[in-house]
Amino acid sequence: MGAFVFLFGNVSLGALDSVIPLLPAVLLFAAMNAFNEELPMRTALLAPLRDAVGAHQAVLMTAALFGLWHFYGVPYGVLGVVMSAALGWFIGKCMVETDGLFWPWFIHFVQDIVIFSAIAIGSITPGG
């Protein structure tokens, strides 16, 4: 995610200082967004799908949906779909293997810190 932000955003090292006063808001929004995406994506979908089609297929299905969900988000476009689907697969595997929400939420939260920091300094916008 950091590579996406630095390659497709206008991030300068000087601009990173401007995110420090916004860090409490960045952390709050990153935590809320990660929770609000993990709850419907992983908790609500993965558990019933796992029972119906098996863990492997359920993880792949939710990863694909997670990727498509991010077409107009950050990361955006086809590359964003692929990156988000890969992250969704990894996070889905974490949820299946740990039977919990903490690690999927935490991994998503860390990704969102990068995204919301870039949005806060104006270097990247959702949807390109």
Characterize the overall form. elongated
- Cα distance, first to last residue? 14 Å
**Mean pLDDT figure:** 88
Main sheet: strands, sense, barrel: none
Q: Secondary-structure element order, as H and E?
A: HHHHH
Which segments are poorly predicted (pLDDT under 50) over 5 or more consecutive residues? none
Helix-and-strand structural type: mainly alpha
In total, how many beta strands?
0
Radius of gyration: 15 Å
Helix content: over 70%
Continuous helix count = 5
Strand content bin = under 5%
Map the helices and strands:
Blueprint: H1 2-8, H2 23-53, H3 55-69, H4 77-98, H5 102-120
Notes on the protein architecture:
It is elongated and about 50 Å long. It is built from 5 helices and no strands. With 128 residues, the protein is mainly α. It has helices at 2-8, 23-53, 55-69, 77-98, 102-120. Helix content is 73%, strand content 0%.
Q: How would you briefly describe this protein structure?
A:
By secondary structure, the protein is mainly α. Helices cover 73% and strands 0% of the residues.
Q: What labels describe this entry?
A:
mainly alpha, elongated, 73% helix
